[in-house]
Write a structure and sequence with these properties.
Strand content: 35-45%
Number of strands: 17
Shape: globular
Order of helices and strands: EEHEEEEEEEEEEEEEEE
Radius of gyration: 16 Å
Length: about 170
């Protein structure tokens, strides 16, 4: 059995998979007559030539933990950002882009609830891993023609466990 280590989410650690969306550690400039800090361009929305950026809200249920990881998905035609709306911690499970996916490529991260992520096109990720029932996420992704969701299923013989308590 493979137990995934959960890492703290940081800009450097998450860089191979996309962008960390958080104000901490980022430069800003003042706007609105000096009353507002603007943390500019924290992530790029990628939609390809035929896509359109859209904004949605996803309401997520918790999954039983420890979680046996059975599948991953990717969006080859556009980026996908998840920004927690209620400030609750959540987990992130990712693997690099590519046609071949192995369990050894998986990396797990813990968001403290003040950090969102933006997956680059083609990055493998697990569907939302909320740690609080009825949690909500602002999602920025792509609408448009073409198949923009691939799924990968691990063999039944592979036991990959994700446990937030370890």
């Amino acid at each position: 059995m493979q137990r995934l280590k959960i890492e703290a989410l940081s800009k450097e650690a998450f860089a191979p998979f996309g962008d960390l969306i958080a104000s901490e550690g980022h430069d800003f400039f003042m706007i609105n007559n000096g009353s507002t800090r603007r943390y500019h361009r924290l992530a790029e929305v990628e939609t390809g030539s035929e896509g359109t950026p859209i904004i949605s809200i996803f309401r997520a249920q918790t999954l039983p933990m420890p979680l046996r990881v059975r599948m991953m998905e990717r969006h080859p035609l556009g980026s996908q950002a998840f920004i927690p709306m209620r400030g609750n911690p959540f987990l992130i499970l990712v693997a690099p882009p590519g046609d071949d996916l192995t369990s050894s490529q998986l990396r797990a991260f813990y968001s403290d609830g003040s950090q969102g992520v933006n997956y680059r096109p083609g990055v493998w990720h697990h569907p939302i891993l909320a740690l609080t029932d009825q949690d909500e996420f602002l999602v920025v992704d792509r609408a448009g023609p073409g198949n923009n969701c691939d799924e990968f299923f691990f063999a039944d013989s592979e036991e990959i466990m994700l446990d937030p308590k370890h």
